[in-house]
Write a structure and sequence with these properties.
Length: 136
């Protein structure tokens, strides 16, 4: 999947998901979705990413195999440039990935929303959204 994202082939990356697969983002805040359900919705979600971040390299990846052979934990970093600022970025991820019949059924992505907002130039909007959520 990471190789496909590096070449911006988000359609092929979405094809790795089961038709009813889900992508979960437990740390998402503000306008970022916490849950994307179904391959078609995941295709739309992934299709937006190359318009925000120009991912150029995944310099480090470690895969941890779990007792359940259908699930792995992947730790990786991605580097590139943000399109809105042109600035370089490095983001670190931990993903828990469950596969059945060769397709992703559940992808839980524990990315850092503060680092992502800082990299994409949207930190003020994220902080505003956090303030609104806290005020509720």
């Amino acid at each position: 999947m990471l190789d496909l994202m590096l070449v911006k082939d988000t359609d092929a990356a979405a094809d790795l998901w089961a038709e009813d697969g889900v992508a979960e983002f437990p740390f998402a805040v503000g306008t970022s979705p916490r849950l994307v359900t179904g391959r078609d919705a995941i295709r739309v979600y992934l299709g937006r990413l190359p318009g925000v971040l120009d991912m150029r390299e995944v310099p480090a990846i470690t895969v941890h195999h779990m007792e359940n052979p259908d699930t792995v934990v992947a730790e990786f970093s991605a580097t590139g440039r943000t399109l809105c600022t042109g600035e370089p970025y490095r983001l670190d991820y931990i993903a828990v990935i469950t596969v059945q019949d060769g397709l992703i059924t559940r992808y839980r992505d524990y990315w850092n929303p503060l680092a992502t907002a800082s990299a994409t130039g949207t930190l003020p909007e994220l902080l505003d959204a956090l303030g609104t959520e806290v005020a509720r």
